[in-house]
Design a protein that fits this description.
alpha+beta, 3 strands, 15% helix
């Protein structure tokens, strides 16, 4: 899942194009920015909460002795 964020508004989609389309189709008070002016997140990289904080990094299995 991909998340695009414009200020306090966020929109999701299976792809970046779908998330951006959902952003453009929304009826809320967003600014209709082009994709380069939005914040983009991958849900696999995010701890999904109200702050969209990054997940803590884990040590790769092949680096653990």
């Amino acid at each position: 899942m991909i998340i695009c964020k414009d200020g306090c508004y966020s929109y999701t989609g299976a792809t970046a194009a779908e998330a951006y389309s959902n952003y453009l189709d929304a009826k809320d008070d967003h600014q209709n920015l082009d994709p380069t002016h939005l914040q983009w997140f991958s849900a696999q990289e995010m701890a999904l909460n109200m702050s969209l904080a990054a997940k803590p990094k884990t040590t790769a299995k092949n680096k653990v002795a």
